[in-house]
Amino acid sequence: MTLRTNKELYELDKQVYLPTFGRYPVAIQRGKGSRVWDVEGREYIDAFAGIAVNNVGHCHPDVVRAIQDQAGRLLHISNYYVSEPQVNLAGKLVDLSGLDRVFFSNSGAESVEGAIKIARKYAHCRSKGGTIISMQGSFHGRTLATIATGRQELQNGFAPIPQGFIQIPLNNMEEIEKIYNEDIAGIIVEPIQGEGGINEIDESFLSQLRTFCDEQDISLIFDEVQTGIARTGKLFAKDHSGVQPDIMTLAKGLGGGVPIGAILSNEKVSATIEAGNHGTTFGGNPLVCAAALAVLETIEKENLAEAAREKGEWIRQQVKEMNEPSVRRIKGKGLMLGIEFDFETKSLVQEMLNNGVLANYLGGNILRLVPPLNISYEELEIVMDVLKKSIERVKENE
Ligand SMILES: *Cc1c(COP(=O)(O)O)cnc(C)c1O
């Protein structure tokens, strides 16, 4: 095999891949724990974790073993048959979530689409319409229906956008009461907005939503694609408020890197789904379910929810002690953090990359840190040092 440089691979990729990602000229080849290496052997600390996917770190030995064992046994079987990894994973998610039923998809957006279908079916069975209310600044995916729930910029160029979606300002119960009518099937909300800038939601708003949805007999959907799997310091972000949704979506961290999403729902809304109402070819195949089971076991065994809480607190403390005037505030929970600066963070992220740390910028001024939950304090110290150095460099260059 010929060895290729970062630059060569970057140029090749540019010729053949659909140009939808503003990619960095770095080709990552290998990962272990919170570290990754590029094709030229350069090491990085990954404080981005594949966009909050590698919650148990890269290539966790128990996850790798589960995948290897399952790969030698059965990779895929039609969902017309039962498979043990799938039934085990579904059972575990039911136990952990307090919800009653599970459907496995292949991604976050696909989980949200399925959640919308369940909410609509339940509403139609009660002679209501199918409109879904979402929050301004939300992000639920990139498929047509999921962009209809989200920001205008993501819809531009893709008309006609599917109908049946309304957006309201975050944390504004009055607005929901004002626009509510019998066309509404459900309300979807991220317990902490991820792509929208790590925006926390008032717990009182979540419990008001619960009461409202009960009164109107419509579905409350929590999109925990990013907040789930111990990311925020609890296994699910809903557990901070204790508000139980009717439907919950998962993906990102669930498979430890293999593509799996899940829709969890309570018996009330699930009871309206009949054979043939929904489906998937790949969703929840034995391979991805074996991986996800190993992820959930690792989260429990290594106490990673608690780890996320503690390390999140530690980062907050470190940021405070930096006394950096350009830092406006730090948002989020656990290891889902957004540091807001008084300058655009794109160049900061580039500078951190140059210094061996992968991070991400959001919405102009936010630096998003979503490292593996089992990242060591030693590695976190390096991240903080690089952050400090990078802030200085960016300010010098302004
Ligand atoms: C990333 C994300 C999605 C979309 O997930 P994909 O796997 O990219 O389709 C949906 N909802 C939330 C909250 C997300 O963070």
Question: Secondary-structure blueprint of this entry?
Answer:
Elements: H1 6-16, E1 28-32, E2 35-38, E3 43-46, H2 49-52, H3 61-71, H4 84-97, E4 101-105, H5 108-125, E5 131-135, H6 144-148, E6 165-168, H7 173-179, E7 184-189, E8 192-193, E9 199-200, H8 203-216, E10 219-223, H9 238-241, E11 247-250, E12 261-265, H10 267-270, H11 286-301, H12 304-322, E13 327-333, E14 336-341, H13 346-354, E15 357-358, E16 360-362, E17 366-369, H14 377-397
Parallel strand pairs: 3-15, 5-6, 5-7, 7-10, 10-11
Antiparallel strand pairs: 1-2, 2-3, 4-12, 8-9, 11-12, 13-14, 14-17, 16-17
Bound molecules: pyridoxal-5'-phosphate.
What would you say this structure looks like, in words?
By secondary structure, this protein is α/β, with parallel strands linked by helices. The chain folds into 2 domains: 6-56 and 303-396, Aspartate Aminotransferase, domain 1, CATH 3.90.1150; 62-301, Type I PLP-dependent aspartate aminotransferase-like (Major domain) (Aspartate Aminotransferase, domain 2). Helix content is 39%, strand content 18%. It is built from 14 helices and 17 strands. It has helices at 6-16, 49-52, 61-71, 84-97, 108-125, 144-148, 173-179, 203-216, 238-241, 267-270, 286-301, 304-322, 346-354, 377-397; strands at residues 28-32, 35-38, 43-46, 101-105, 131-135, 165-168, 184-189, 192-193, 199-200, 219-223, 247-250, 261-265, 327-333, 336-341, 357-358, 360-362, 366-369. The strands form 4 sheets. The chain has a 7-stranded mixed β-sheet with strand order 4-12-11-10-7-5-6, with helices on both faces. Strands 1-2-3-15 form a 4-stranded mixed β-sheet. Strands 13-14-17-16 form a 4-stranded antiparallel β-sheet, with helices on one face. The longest helix is centred in the C-terminal third of the chain and has 21 residues, at 377-397. Pyridoxal-5'-phosphate (PLP) binds next to α5.
